[in-house]
Specification:
Number of helices: 9
Strand content: 15-25%
Order of helices and strands: EHEHEEEHEHEHEEEHEHEHH
Radius of gyration: 18 Å
Structural class: alpha/beta
Largest sheet: 8 strands, parallel, barrel
Pfam families: Aldo_ket_red (PF00248)
Shape: globular
Helix content: 25-40%
Protein name: Oxidoreductase
CATH topology: TIM Barrel
CATH superfamily: NADP-dependent oxidoreductase domain
Number of domains: 1
Distance between the termini: 37 Å
InterPro entries: AKR2_Oxidoreductase (IPR053135), NAD(P)_OxRdtase_dom_sf (IPR036812), NADP_OxRdtase_dom (IPR023210)
Number of strands: 12
């Protein structure tokens, strides 16, 4: 089992010109060319690695994120860097912020076959974890036995197979995934889910995943920027939000989605910040309300 803990760096916000995050317009260069974002990603990866970050998260739908990370790894060959990617969404925005459709979701076998090939072409044997992207209880990925065999074959090659979840029924999706077996063995060994002070409903299911031996990775700990602007969390709301996730006994890795070196430095303060998440329990929203509000955020 892969052993990695602490804060990881996710490249969703910097691998493509458009993303859903409050305040992002001020974080990136006015000209969001491929070259400009490549330079930003390299800066962040260099800074993160120097500060002890060892888990790096990308996805097929994050524009050029896999390419940027692969180029950086070839340049530095950090053997202790752990790489996770995701398949299941196809990036369709063609490097535009104003695209009508930014990504298309499909959890079918054909999409897996295509995207694992694309990922391995870029990352090769540096791919450590491969998640199905944004699984919900309705996803065919939870019941497709042909797909399960494909994924088990990938696991046999040494890649940890997992899933990420989204939506108000994350807990149900996680529990269904934990029940999936291939030849009597659990298929999914890593779970990446949204957990934050506004949307903590997946917590009990994530604890079950952890107890079952899964690596648990927290995404969107700052609620797509909403918590970073919440002054009731104090002078460093971003660090408080991340520290609250790190304080969960089932959390192995909490992702920073920093888009600037300053944000990353501030985020990493969470590693030494004691936070009692229960003291912020009143911030929690009904899951349906939270996810409806997230769906209404604009790409910027």
């Amino acid at each position: 089992m892969i052993s990695v803990r602490g804060i990881g760096l996710g490249l969703a916000a910097v691998g493509r010109p458009g993303y859903i995050n409050l305040g992002r317009d001020a974080d990136l260069p006015a000209e969001r060319t491929v070259e400009a974002l490549r330079a930003r990603v390299f800066e962040l990866l260099d800074d993160a690695y120097a500060r002890g970050v060892r888990y790096f998260d990308v996805a097929r739908s994050y524009g050029r994120a896999e390419q940027f990370l692969a180029d950086w790894l070839r340049k530095h060959a950090h053997d202790d860097a752990v790489v996770g990617s995701k398949w299941g969404y196809t990036y369709t925005a063609e490097w535009r912020v104003d695209a009508e459709v930014h990504e298309v979701k499909d959890h079918g076998v054909a999409t897996f076959d295509r995207q694992i090939g694309e990922t391995q072409d870029l990352l090769g044997d540096r791919l450590d974890i491969y998640h199905i992207h944004s699984v919900t209880p309705e996803s065919p990925a939870l019941t497709d036995r042909v797909l399960h065999r494909r994924l088990a074959g990938l696991a046999a090659q040494g890649v940890v197979v997992g899933l990420s979840t989204s939506g108000p029924s994350q807990a149900a999706a996680i529990r269904e995934a934990l029940a999936v077996r291939v030849d009597g063995e659990p298929l999914f060994r890593s779970v990446q889910a949204t957990w934050n002070l506004l949307e903590p409903s997946a917590g009990p299911a994530l604890a079950e995943a952890h107890d079952a031996g899964c690596l648990v990775i927290v995404k969107e700990a700052m609620a797509n920027g909403r918590l970073a602007a919440l002054r009731s969390l104090g002078e460093a709301p971003d660090a408080v939000a991340l520290a609250a996730a790190l304080a969960q006994p089932w959390a192995n890795v909490v992702l920073s989605g920093a888009a600037t070196a300053g944000q990353l430095e501030s985020n990493l303060r969470a590693l030494t910040m004691p936070v009692d998440a229960e003291s912020f329990a009143e911030l929690a929203e009904p899951p349906g309300e939270y996810w409806a509000r997230r769906a209404g955020l604009a790409w910027s």
